[in-house]
Structures are given as structure tokens and as C-alpha cells.
Amino acid sequence: MATAVRSIEALARRLGQVWAGNTSPVPLALFRVGLALLVLLRTSDWLWPWTSLDHYTWQRGGEFAHPLDGELLPRLFSPLVPLPNLPRVALWWAAQLRTGLAVLLLLGVRTRLTSFVLFAVGYGLMALDRYRYLHHLHLLWTSCLWLSLCAGPSSWSIERAWLPPSGPTPRWSLQLLRAQCLIVYAASGLAKLNADWLSGRALEQLAHARLVSGPLFEAAVGRMGFSALALTIPTVELLLVGLLAAPRLRRVGLALAVALHGGLEASMTLSTFGAQMALYLMLFLSWQPRTAADGPDYEVRARARAVYRSAYGRANQAGSATRASDHHVLRRRRAPRLFPAAEVRRTAPTACASERASRAHVER
Amino acid sequence: MVALPVSSYWTGSTVGSYRMFTDLVHYHVELWRVGASGARQTIELAELAPHLGPEARRIILPAAHRATGETAAELLVAGRQDLARLGCTLHPEARSVEIIVQRRVLRGELRTDRSELRCGDSRP
């Protein structure tokens, strides 16, 4: 019983550590800018002559802002959730508001409020007609909702011109968005754990219907067969959840995720889904507090670095450690011999412990 | 964040589930109007086209023959009453409008969802 309680306490402590502390504001700023650009691209046909996004086949101009578009009254009203039937002029203005909000989000004006209203207007416009529902749109608008919950300063924001810099960026904001990414992979992987998919029949039928195609897909099928390929996809998706969640395996996870999305983009028409997931994957890079303004984590890290460099420099002067790869040697064996016992007690353990602590903190 | 995918997973719904291309579903829609005498006449889906938005056209019109799409089929089944209501509005002389949505999943299983809307009745 006591062991179980201790385990639960340790788990709670570990979970608390995952969410605690500060991080660099850069990933959230990148996410905000990328999301705003994706909203602008997905809800317009601005790139129509140059790119071929699948919504261009049924949409011209702003999405859901088509002025009557040949529709006669009465029009079909079939909302996804109970919503009032708004007049066309209100829809047109809502679509313009959505574009304006996306521009404000891009500029970083009142990020939290802007992204929440953008979620409400964007999702609302989509939900007014159930036939507008698409998975990547659902993810796009809910991403705006999660961004509105994220605390933190607005880096790369026009607001910085007239507002003083705000406090450090809490790590939980970054972790919240990372959690959304893991949920997408988990949900997608779990949905494929059925006999039809795992036997390869579903994938074969999808290929037969030309929903999945392309030279890469054909090469994969030729080499592995439908069944093995079908088994590989959910395996990779579920593996990604673990790999991306574990700091030490994150680089492997990122490489695997890039390979997976590269394959999907080459074989299917997924609109902006790949770009959205690329934004989410960017959040898993090793982001560190960069300046003193990023909060106490930066100070801990900077202090650890200074102490460690000082100890390493003395070891170099003594000619015993000359390569960066000798760090562990310095830490574990040489340092105690090179310095007076009192100084070793004072610097080396502090340096090593601080360095370890700050690295673990950053990797989380 | 978790609630919607979990509920979709347990209910088998695809809306909000982040599942794409996991199953192949073919769907077909038939719309019938029943006159005062009880005679049934088909309503061509193409007849509805001018009253549909571009997104609805993309999903509904191909269903006159056989269309493909897991989520699209589910959206159609869930919104069949609205489609029947539009049929009633376009044919005020009809006593009721019947809608039949057939879905054939990969295993060959045929699911038929049939409902009838009495025109002029606010209740489905």
C-alpha cells in the first residue's frame, strides 16, 4: 500500500515537472504565425493559380463567403450542431471577420482573445452546414482554441511596439499543444485497429478507388504488400505517441513523423493537414529559454553553463581534457584529481548536477 | 481535447475523430415524395442542386448513383431529415417525403437508414 502511494506520488511529481517551468517563446510564436497563415490559405483561393489545394475544386473566393453562388432559395439548412439559420449577408460579414482575425493573429495582436474569437467564428461558419465538415478543418479551428488557452508573451508581435515585454512563457502552454498532436496520432492509430484495416483489405479498396495512389505508394505495396503496409501505418502512428512523448527518443520520433507525412502527402490529397501537423511537430524540437527575459529557467541554465565551463576550462589548461567528447571523463574521473578537494566539492558537483538538471528540464 | 476523439471512438462516429481513410464506405441516397393519393414519385437529387451550397453539392449529388466517403456518408445519414425538409419545401403538394440512405461498408454489409417526414409537420 505504501509502495503504491509512493509510486502515485512519484508519478504525480513527474507529471507536475512535465508541465512546470518556463520555455522559449519562439515555438508558440512560430505556431501562431503558421496557424494564421494556414487559416488565410485554407479559407481563400489566393494561391489558386500556383498551387492545387483540394478545396479549390468546389470553392472560389473566401470560404463560405460565396455571394449566393447560384444557390436558389430555399437553401438547404443542415447545421452540424444546433445553430440559427443566419442570413447570407451575416455569413458574408462573418467570413470577412474571420479573415481580419487571421490577419490580427498573424500580427500577434491580442493573441489569446483573437485566436478564441477566430475559433468561434471559424468553427461556427463550418458548423452552420454539416457538409462543410472536414477533419483537417476541425483540427485547424480547434488548434485556434488551444492557442487561445496558451499563456505567454507575444513574441514576434506588433504589440511589442507599444506594450512592455511580458513575463516568461510557461512550459504548460507548449505541452498543451504537444498533447493535441499526440492525440491526433493516437486517435488515428487506434481507429485502424480493426480486422478490415489490419488485413489490408481496406487499404486495397482505397487504392482501388484511387483515394490512395502515387509511385511511392505503389512501390511500398510492391515491396511489402497491402497487409504489411496496412499494419505498418497504425504501428508507426501509435509508436509516434511514445517516441514524441519521451524526450530522449524525440528526435527519432520527429524523423519517423516526417517520413510518415512525406509518404501520406505523396499518396493522398490531404489539403493543409500535412502543414498543420508540421507546425505541431515543430513544437517537439528542443526549445530552450534563450534570454534572461524568458524566466528563471534561463538563469539556472546560464549559471550551470558558466560553472561547468569554468571547471572544464581549468581541466583544459591542465591538458587533460581537450575534446568536447571528454566531458564525461572530466565529470566522472579527471576533475576530482585535478582540483583541490575543497574546490571539487564546491564546483564540480554543482556544475554536473546543474547541467544535468537543466538538460533534463529543457528536454521535457 | 481528449473528450471528442474518445466519444467518437466509442460511438463509432467519424466526426471529430481525426480518422481519415480508415474504411471505404459507399453510399447512395433516394428521395421520394408521397402525394395525397399515396402515389410515390422520386425526387431527383439534381433537382436539389440549385438549393445546395458547394460543399453539400460535393457530397449529396454523387449519391444519386454511388459515392464514396466514410465521413460524408455519416453526415448524410445524420442530416437526412434536413434534406427531406428541403424536399417538402420544394414540393408543397406532397403529403410526405421519404429519404433512404444506403451505406455499404467494406465487409459488404448494407446499412439502410430510412425516414419519412410529413410535410407541414414541424416534427420529423
What can you tell me about this protein's structure?
The complex is a heterodimer of chains A (364) and B (124). With 364 residues, chain A is mostly helical. Chain A contains 14 helices and two strands, in the order αβααααβααααααααα. Chain A has a two-stranded antiparallel sheet. The radius of gyration of chain A is 26 Å and the shape is globular. Chain B is elongated. The N and C termini of chain B lie far apart (33 Å). The model of chain B has no long low-confidence stretch (mean pLDDT 89). At the A-B interface, helix 5, helix 6 and helix 8 of A face helix 1, helix 3, helix 4 and helix 5 of B.
**What proportion strand of chain B?**
25-35%
Q: Classify the helix fraction of chain A into a percent range.
A: 55-70%
Order of helices and strands of chain B: HEEHHEHHEE
Radius of gyration of chain A: 26 Å
Outline type of chain A = globular
Number of helices of chain A: 14
Low-confidence stretches of chain B: none
For the biggest β-sheet of chain A, the strand order reads 1-2
Distance between the termini of chain B: 33 Å
What distance separates the N and C termini of chain A?
A: 30 Å
Order of helices and strands of chain A: HEHHHHEHHHHHHHHH
Beta-strand portion of chain A reads under 5%
Features:
heterodimer; A: 364 residues; mainly alpha; globular; B: 124 residues
Summary, kept brief:
With 364 residues, chain A is mainly α. Chain A has helices at 2-19, 26-42, 88-107, 111-127, 135-149, 171-191, 195-198, 201-208, 215-245, 250-267, 273-282, 296-317, 327-338, 341-363, and strands at 22-23, 169-170. The model of chain A is unreliable at 328-344 (pLDDT under 50).
Summarize the topology.
The complex is a heterodimer of chains A (364) and B (124).
Chain A: H1 2-19, E1 22-23, H2 26-42, H3 88-107, H4 111-127, H5 135-149, E2 169-170, H6 171-191, H7 195-198, H8 201-208, H9 215-245, H10 250-267, H11 273-282, H12 296-317, H13 327-338, H14 341-363
Antiparallel strand pairs in A: 1-2
Chain B: H1 3-11, E1 26-34, E2 40-42, H2 45-48, H3 54-60, E3 67-68, H4 70-78, H5 80-90, E4 96-104, E5 110-118
Antiparallel strand pairs in B: 1-2, 1-3, 1-4, 4-5
